[in-house]
Every structure is written in structure tokens, then in C-alpha cells.
Amino acid sequence: MDLFEYQGKQYFSRFGIAVSPGDIADTVEEAVAVAERVGYPVVVKAQVKVGGRGKAGGVKLANDVDEVRRHAGDILGLDIKGHVVRRLWIERSSDIAKEYYASFTLDRPHKSHLGMLSAQGGVEIEVVAEENPEAIAFLSIDPVHGLDLATARRWVHEAELDEVAREQAAELLVKLYDCYTTGDCDLAEINPLILTPEGQVHALDAKVTLDENASFRHPEWEEFRATETDDPREKMAKEKGLNYIGLDGSIGIIANGAGLAMSTLDVVNQVGGSAANFLDIGGGANADVMAAALEVINSDPKVTAIFVNIFGGITRVDEVAKGVLEALSRVSIAAPIVLRLDGTNAVEGRAILAPHLNDRLITEPTMLDAARRAVSLANA
Ligand code: GDP
Ligand code: MN
After folding, report:
1. Which CATH number covers residue 194?
2. Which atom of ligand 1 is nearest to the CA of 50?
3. pTM of this structure
4. How far is 9 from 21, CA to CA, in rounded Å?
5. Which of 221, 242, 266 is a domain's end point?
6. Could you say which of 6, 11, 101, 177 is catalytic?
7. Is 11 assigned a catalytic role?
8. What confidence tens digit (pLDDT) does each residue in 172-224 have?
9. Which end of the chain has the lower number of beta carbons within 10 A, N or C?
10. Which atom of ligand 1 approaches the CA of 91 most closely?
């Protein structure tokens, strides 16, 4: 689960990482109230889960109430790479002497954590990695041993952070590592981590991805989950426990297994269609799951055909067939359904469906045939 910057900063604060004082605002008037409270100058920042907000006009400095009004008005509703800004974070502006970069993430091939630190922050780390790779100091961290202060001190030295920043940065990095591990993050990134002219080091931005596998020990993540998506389809899917991602096309997709679901999107594209969603009903999906999946897809007015692509393994095709029939008895599905059923108990599954087939419920023998059929129905 990705956090908004303001949530990432709240998370950082819990681990003692310094951030600027500020608050959220959903309207221009709220933005003004926050600015008056924290004191000018302030930075008005778009809260969207995508990088490069600065370049897109989503981060603006305001010296007085008029500027806050103007910038808040401009940024609210702004579309940044397909993400519409609904919320702002207003914080006290910092003077910047230097911008650094710091992050921790998982290094899967090496079974360790990976720290990245650079004296060249503020720009995308991918760009630094491309143009000036020696400017990034990589640190491989044994998860059993962790990151101690002595190692962090060597690291800030190696990364050539400014002398005055080093001790504070080392201490901050130990806290950030604690946030990353104890806080169960997949990614904890600060870009820029700044040095102020007064010699203070603190986080100006926060990019945090939480590891969903650890959510059982973080009941406090519930507050982050509440703001996770404003796509009503995704909300509904989440409530039903489905692995669903909304897209813009017209063909609703249901598949078992993430790999098959992705292949299904590819095949639909290949034959000239576009998917309305990604939906993996997983292994062992039963009738209830199938019914829930159809209900979510049915809630999407853009869907003009549904493609159910099942390769039975643990999932039994006869169960899926029963699920389809059960869903059809519970809700009236607006779009025609094309099924491709193969694998475990496929023969039994097809037999269950056979008496119910018509021009709204169709089976096709292969994935490609089914994709073609769904696309032609969607465009009909
Ligand atoms: P991003 O573009 O989405 O990564 O958003 P950031 O929060 O990193 O802000 C982009 C840039 O705006 C930063 O790299 C800074 O150069 C600048 N910026 C952000 N906050 C401040 C601030 O408090 N003072 C000043 N002077 N610049 C800021
Ligand atoms: Mn940034």
C-alpha cells in the first residue's frame, strides 16, 4: 500500500524523523487556515501518489495569504499524470542549502536490505543512477544485524554528504531504517532530504510503501487504508477481498492467478480490445468469490462484455461454473459473458453450464477465441 506524502511524514514522525510542521487541506479556505497556523512562507503541495509533482506544478511556495489562495486554487483539481488532486499538504517552507537522497528497500536477489544515499538529491534517483551512478552510495544491510550508528556514519562519509550534515544524517538514517523495518515498509524514501542554511537536516518529502503482508500487526494502518482509493469499483472489490485494479477499457476481466490475468489483458489488447480491469480471483476460488467478482465488474458502467478466463488447477472449473450461475441468479449482469474454461474438472464445469448457454452466456474453446468473441461483443 502506497502512502500519500502527508501520511508518510506522519509515519516518519512516529519514528522520530524530523519533518516540517504542517497539515492537510481539502479546500482553499482550509489551506489558508493551515497556512495562518504554521506561519509564512509555506509550501502548498499536491497530495497524489505519483512522483514529479514539483515539475508538474503541484508544489508551490506561498509568501502570504493571497498566494496561498491562488496556489491552493490552482493545485486542487489539477491532473498530475492521471491523478486528480483532491487534497493538499501545507507546511512551513524550509530554506535549502543542499538536497540529498536517502532510501531503504528490499534487495531480493541478495536476501538483504538495500540503502541508497546520495549527495545529489531533489532529482529523480533513476536519473542520477543513469547519468552519475558513482554519486549513489549503496549499502547492503544484513537484516539480522541491522543498521548501527557506526555503519551509518561511514555511509554518510562515503556518500560525501556535507560535513555539517553528517552526524544528523547518520542518526536520521538509523531512524529511517527502524521505520522501514519495524514499520514494515517495502520502501521508505526521502527525496529531498535537506540540509538547511542553519545546519539542520530533515525530510522535505516522503515516499512510503507499506508491506501488506505485515498488516496483521499494524491495526493503525486502517487510517491509511481509508484514503487508499477513491475508485468506487476498487473500494467495492477491496470490501469483497478481491485482487482488483480498475482500468479504462470496456472488457471486464476475471482470471484465476495474476499471471493468467495479465496474459488475458495482453490477449485482449492483441485482438484490438481494451480491459476495464485486472481481476485475479486466485487459486481455490469458489462460487462466492466468482459471484463477488461478477458483481464488482457489473458495477462498472463502461463494461460492455465480460471475459472469464479460468485455467483450473487448485481452482476447480465446476466450482467456477456454479459460481457463475449463482452470481447470475443473484444479480442481473448487464454485459454478455464469454467463458474460457480449462484445466481441473473442465468437462464437469462445461456440463454444468451447458443448459444455461445463450447469446449472453457463451463459452469458447481457447483463450484467443474467447478474447476475439468478447471484443466483438463489446464493440457490437
Ligand atoms: P516531488 O516533485 O513529487 O518529488 O515533490 P517534493 O516534495 O520532492 O518537492 C519538489 C521540490 O520542491 C523539492 O525537490 C524542492 O526543491 C522543492 N521544495 C519542496 N519543499 C520546499 C520547501 O519547503 N522550500 C523550498 N525552498 N523548496 C521546496
Ligand atoms: Mn520528492
Report:
1. 3.30.470.20
2. 3
3. 0.76
4. 10
5. 221
6. 101
7. no
8. 999 999 999 999 999 999 999 999 999 999 999 999 999 999 999 999 999 99
9. C
10. 23
